[in-house]
Amino acid sequence: MTATGEPPVDLRAFHNEVEGHLLVAAARAEARAAAARFAAGLDWLPAAQRAEVERRFAQEYLTLARASWERTAHRGEELRSEYEALYRGLRARLLAGLLLGLALVVGVDFVVLAAG
Q1: What's the pLDDT tens digit per position in 38-75?
Q2: How many CB atoms lie within 10 A of CB 57?
Q3: What is the DSSP letter of 3?
Q4: pLDDT of 100-110, one tens digit each?
Q5: Are 53 and 38 in contact (CB under 8 A)?
Q6: Does pLDDT of 6 surpass 80?
Q7: Could you give the 3-state DSSP secondary structure of residue 7?
Q8: Handedness of CA 54, 59, 63, 68 (dihedral sign)
Q9: Of 5, 33, 90, 109, which has the fewest CB atoms closer than 10 Å, so is most exposed?
Q10: Which pTM was predicted?
């Protein structure tokens, strides 16, 4: 709780939510614009049918955009998992190398001190 008695704001979550709303709004605007461009070539259709074609086109556009975003997010999660595993492996090897180097230095010091 903050001094005002309200729960603290998670700025990252808030930023992500706002960004999501902006992306959806932009996608909807793009869908409407693409639908209007497509339907403009169908001037032989009555206005009501052209409006229905625009509506369906925009809906399909948004469906495809959503599917693309979901695939991208899923692939991002896969890559993150792969990179985290690689990072853990590299970190373990680095730690092992450092410990081996430290053991080698201590061993050499011990031999030098014992010989002297």
Answers
A1: 999 898 999 999 999 999 999 999 999 999 999 999 99
A2: 18
A3: T
A4: 999 999 999 99
A5: yes
A6: no
A7: coil
A8: positive
A9: 5
A10: 0.66
Residues in the chain: 116
d(CA 110, CA 115): 8
Structure tokens of 82? 């792969």
Instruction: Give residue 78's identity as a one-letter amino acid code.
Output: E
Q: Identify which of 53, 8, 12, 17 has the alpha carbon closest to the alpha carbon of residue 32.
A: 53
C-alpha dist (Å) from residue 29 to 33, 37, 40, 47? 6, 12, 16, 21
Q: The tokens of 1 are what? A: 């709780």
How far is the CA of 27 from the CAs of 20, 57, 74, 78, in angstroms? 10, 13, 20, 25
How many CA atoms within 13 Å lie on the side-chain side of 8?
A: 5
